[in-house]
From TrEMBL:
Protein name: Ferredoxin--nitrite reductase, chloroplastic
Domain Nitrite/Sulfite reductase ferredoxin-like: 125-191, 383-447
Organism per entry: Dendrobium nobile (Orchid)
Family: Belongs to the nitrite and sulfite reductase 4Fe-4S domain family.
Required co-factors: siroheme; [4Fe-4S] cluster
Every Nitrite/sulphite reductase 4Fe-4S domain range: 201-357, 464-573
Swiss-Prot/TrEMBL keywords: 4Fe-4S, Heme, Iron, Iron-sulfur, Metal-binding, Nitrate assimilation, Oxidoreductase
Annotated TM spans: none
């Protein structure tokens, strides 16, 4: 093979000809060589790590990369948020300080509005001043009756200000928390094996897995051990992993264990897809999926395969590449896919490969184990487990909202009929596993299942998802949860639907309700009604798909006033989904039963 000199490689001139290449190079050639050298230097500079480890283990943005950084990055530079965990009993001191005193300084305001998010605490300044939402870590959505009772006791203590939500990442969020109570709540979480650490802001969010893991007769792999390992790694066993607490933005991960793709891999920053290679089980990898106001993108193949033993090293390598190289400028352009697009997938892959323990990364396997032609199964209702004589029961939780009394009852039922275990899903529902078949009839007669959390909801209700909305969230433009229920109930009065239709609501363009993966999505906005007055409205999305043929929905209609939405949805269902109009008498019910539970009225 002919060798090439470094300086002449660009031109493809063999070394053995160099002695005859004595003519002065042309001006064009010199210019091209200089440009190439400059480009190589620029690329090398772009691949320089932007953060460095400092005393105490904190990772800090280097001085040379601080120009043009966003506000959140400035807050992190002024004081590392994890100092509230590690330094001088930080959270206990903050919790003991009167709110008025905290508010007297910019640093204090930044503590309660920004830095506390590293502890999973979100100040509801706009709608519940002085109250916090607390987000947990619940890998694979698996929780226990003991944990559920503890969370119920916390929100019960806050009366009408307390409630809980199931999130679209198989997780609990509890509401109404007061700052003074946080240290004791954190102690209580530790006692029952829970943590809220690193669940908000620029951290790794709850690892998602198959909600049927370990009990599904058709599962590919049990995702629970992998999700638990990922969560333990990310949080250093709930003590805080300082090497991963200064990411450019939030970061989502999931492990796929089913043909149904309940885990929604295409909207995660990193997704592990089961695949075999050389007779070994492992995972192909997808990277970069995300939603944001500026852009939504499906994850793309990294063209890499890892053995199952390398799940954590691979995760670490991807996170470190993102931490080191990701942009920290315009906040809406800092998710990992922006970095992938900037570098190109091959360069990004090389950076991940460099950070693997072996310095190498195998190419993707052609032997993916997820079946491409697969009809997604409904997990609501009663279904047999792989364990002979046992079943799991899927319960529909209307838009994911629960009260303390509901949680106490769920814990009791899990103990009485199952193994004391509950599982949350990304569609905001709950599964009770390990129910002996002989106990199923009694379980189905429980008042909670009859009145609140039905195992057999209507077709439209079973696919309904809604974010927090303006009741609690300061970023939401519209109220979502009660409105989603009211609109759906009214639509069901007008049309008969024969096949599942997934409808998602989100209160703002951040799309926490994931409207782009829904058959019909509603994104909150302000618009004008027929009288020209500003009112709450939605942008309507159509065509989102989940599963092996996943596809993000597209904008169908902008600025529909919420009060005029029902006929629009009816029209869509008839024209696009084969719904049949009902002949009905007009009725004028006030607040639907389910909506009452959202507001305790």
């Amino acid at each position: 093979m002919t060798s090439y000199s470094t300086s002449l490689q660009h031109f493809g001139v063999p070394q053995r000809l160099c002695s005859r290449c004595r003519r002065r190079p042309s001006r064009e050639a010199v210019g091209e060589l200089a440009a190439n050298s400059t480009a190589q230097e620029a690329e090398a500079g772009r691949l320089e790590a932007r953060v460095e480890e400092r005393e105490g283990g904190y990772w800090v943005l280097k001085e040379k990369f601080r120009a043009g950084i966003n506000l959140q990055e400035k807050v992190k530079l002024e004081k590392d948020p994890m100092s509230l965990v590690y330094e001088d009993d930080g959270i206990r001191k903050l919790a003991a300080t009167p709110l008025e005193e905290i508010e007297a300084s910019k640093s204090g305001k930044d503590d309660i509005d920004v830095r506390l998010k590293w502890l999973g605490l979100f100040h509801r300044r706009k709608h519940q001043y002085g109250r916090f939402m607390m987000r947990l870590k619940l890998p694979n959505g698996v929780t226990t009756s003991e944990q559920t009772r503890y969370l119920a006791s916390v929100i019960q203590s806050y009366g009408d200000d307390g409630c809980a939500d199931i999130t679209t990442r198989q997780n609990w969020q509890i509401r109404g928390v007061q700052l003074a109570d946080v240290p004791s709540i954190l102690d209580g979480l530790t006692a029952v094996g829970l943590t809220s650490l690193q669940s908000g802001m620029d951290n790794v969010r709850n690892p998602v897995g198959n909600p049927l893991a370990g009990i599904d007769p058709l599962e590919i792999v049990d995702t629970r051990p992998f999700a638990s390992l990922l969560s333990s790694f990310v949080t250093a066993n709930s003590k805080g992993n300082l090497s991963l607490t200064n990411l450019p933005r939030k970061w989502n991960v999931c492990v796929v264990g089913s043909h149904d793709l309940y885990e929604h891999p295409h909207i995660n920053d990193l997704a592990y897809i089961p695949a075999e290679k050389y007779g070994r089980f492992g995972f192909n990898l997808l990277v970069g999926g995300f939603f944001s106001p500026k852009r939504c993108a499906e994850a793309v193949p990294l063209d890499a395969w890892i053995a199952a033993d390398d799940v954590i090293p691979l995760c670490k390598a991807v996170l470190e590449a993102y931490r080191d190289l990701g942009s920290r400028g315009i906040r809406q352009k800092t998710r990992m896919m922006w970095l992938i697009n900037e570098l190109g997938i091959e360069t990004f892959r090389t950076e991940v490969e460099k950070r693997m323990p072996t310095g190498s990364l195998e190419r993707a396997s052609p032997g993916e184990l997820v079946m491409k032609q697969w009809e997604r199964r409904d997990y609501l209702g009663v279904h047999p487990q792989k364990q002979l004589g046992f079943s799991f029961v899927g319960l529909h939780v209307p838009v994911g909202r629960v009260q303390a009394v509901d949680m106490f009852e769920l814990a009791r039922i899990a103990d009485a009929y199952g193994s004391g275990e509950l599982r949350l899903t990304v569609e905001q529902n709950i599964l009770i596993p390990n129910v002996e078949n002989s106990r199923l009839s009694a379980l189905l007669e429980e008042p909670l299942l009859k009145k609140r959390f039905s195992p057999g909801p209507s077709i439209l209700m079973k696919g309904l998802v809604a974010c927090t909305g303006s009741q609690f969230c300061g970023q939401a433009i519209i109220e979502t949860k009660a409105r989603a229920l009211r609109v759906t109930e009214e639509v069901e009065r007008r049309v008969a639907v024969t096949k599942p239709v997934r409808m998602h609501w989100t209160g703002c363009p951040n799309s926490c309700g994931q409207v782009q993966v829904a058959d019909i999505g509603f994104m909150g906005c302000l618009t004008r009604n027929a009288d020209g007055k500003v009112c709450e409205g939605v942008d309507v999305y159509l065509g989102g798909r989940i599963g092996s043929d996943s596809h993000l929905g597209e904008l169908y209609k902008k600025g529909v006033p919420c009060d005029e939405l029902v006929p629009v949805v009816v029209e869509i269902l008839v024209e696009k989904f084969g719904a049949v109009p009902k002949v009905r008498e007009e009725d004028h019910e006030a607040v639907p039963c389910d909506a009452k539970y959202l507001y305790k009225i």
